[in-house]
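Lecture notes, unit on binding sites. The following record was shown on slide 14. It pairs a sequence with glutamic acid.
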Amino acid sequence: MKGHNIPSGDLRRIVAEIAAEMAAETDRGTVADYIPQLAKVDPKQFALVISTADGEFITAGDAETHFSIQSVSKVFTLALALGKLGERLWTRVGREPSGDPFNSIVQLEHERGVPRNPFINAGAIVVTDSILSDYEPKEALAQILQFVRYLASDEAIAIDPAVAKSELDTGFRNAALANFMRAYGTIIGPPEHTLGVYFHHCAIAMTTRQLAAAGRFLAFDGQLDPGGSRVISTRMARQINALMLTCGHYDGSGEFAFRVGLPGKSGVGGGIVAVVPGQASIGCWSPGLNAVGNSQLASRALELLTRRTGWSIFAPR
Ligand code: GLU
């Protein structure tokens, strides 16, 4: 099987089998606890959703359960910022994998306040600051939320205020990153404004089904559907996919590319969005994380999915 036009019956069977195998897993990783509100989530949950080119949703597991998307939101803020600023964004944030933990301060000092990429915390805080530029924090946040709702075609998507507060109360390390970058001028606005918006967009709650829907624009070259409404340019969509492949899984990005072979972005809430260009957007979620902070079962499930479907961005077309 080359991975093209897999009959939907076959996809359904593969997705159901993977969900059943994941339900039987005993080693489910560890739920993030550095944001206290996230530590309360039940690790037994799992969901896998594929949103195909023709608009079908193939779902298994807890596909309608809301979870905190955390760093997956960085994909959406990057798309919004690129749409607004274009290439100018790249004067303030780089495009190289970091090889360091997502909240590393050391690297930022070496590189004079310019973060390695938009998916580590420092880089995402810069992206948030760029969206904020001429707006009040509330307005910027409303734009981000509206953008995510538009991508997922779902007006019900909202921020979980308890998670946002939990992170505001404990996000000292992110505050350090923001203040440090303000000193270098990488961040322009007041750090507390930028952090407030950043914590809130990380606290957006979505279901795995909504996440799969929201990833569609990256699967279809910047359009919500093949040949449909354009969200961002083809070039930008491909650039974001390149960054997801190289930087989307913290310092486990190489491993994810090796095992799964698709662009993807994970968050410490246990969610991963991944795309098969031209074919499908995938949402996967399970709250237990591996040692580098990626969902243990979602990573495993995506590996099994690509093996069984033949999906890979490296597959001949
Ligand atoms: N809001 C989280 C933080 O800044 C995001 C972590 C993540 O998902 O990588 O620590």
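Take-home: Residues 70-71, 102-103, 121, 167, 174, 202, 267-268 surround glutamic acid (CB under 6 Å).
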